[in-house]
Specification:
The protein is α/β, with parallel strands linked by helices. It has two domains: about 70 residues, Signal recognition particle alu RNA binding heterodimer, srp9/1 (2-Layer Sandwich), CATH 3.30.720.100; about 55 residues, 2,3-Dihydroxybiphenyl 1,2-Dioxygenase, domain 1 (Roll). It contains three helices and eight strands, in the order E-H-E-H-E-E-E-H-E-E-E. A four-stranded mixed β-sheet has the order 1-4-3-2, covered by helices on one side. Strands 5-8-7-6 form a four-stranded mixed β-sheet, with helices on one face.
């Protein structure tokens, strides 16, 4: 069966970020995180520094609704640079307000920016944040009875 996942890039903080996301979502790693030092390298390749050897080559985490987030660390020695921006967000369509509020509270801890949760004109609870790793999250859920619109 075909699936869609979201792939995230980090500059040496992938392992820390995914431990945080595992705590937020309570999901499980699809497989143990793989380190760059464990990747077979061509004989002519220069040795990795300790920093780059400890970086994450690949990690996948099951989150809500069967969605997986995956991640890797960039490799500065290969000319990679990370530019965090606002060109994408991970959107979570949640089943209830309580779950939205819990996830938003956890993701917003140390967040660069945060909005919500607010009852919106389109009839859903909405929240957003750019978490401590610069990843943008949007969350929506049905409004619980009695929440009403502001």
């Amino acid at each position: 069966m075909a699936t869609v996942s979201t792939y995230l890039n980090f500059d040496g903080t992938c392992e820390e970020a995914f431990a945080f996301y595992k705590d937020v979502f309570g999901g499980e790693y699809v497989a143990p995180p793989q380190k760059m030092r464990d990747v077979p390298r061509p004989p002519e390749a220069p040795p990795l520094s300790d920093d780059e050897g400890n970086r994450i080559m690949h990690v996948a985490l099951a989150t809500v609704g069967g969605h997986q987030i995956m991640g890797t660390d960039i490799m500065p020695s290969m000319g990679h640079t990370l530019t965090t921006g606002n060109a994408m967000s991970i959107n979570l369509e949640l089943d209830d307000e309580e779950t939205l509020r819990e996830i938003h509270e956890k993701l917003s801890e140390g967040a660069a920016e945060s909005y919500g949760p607010q009852a919106e004109f389109w009839g859903q609870l909405f929240a957003t944040c750019a978490d401590r790793y610069g990843i943008r999250w949007m969350m929506v859920s049905p409004l619980d009875e009695g929440t009403g619109l502001a």
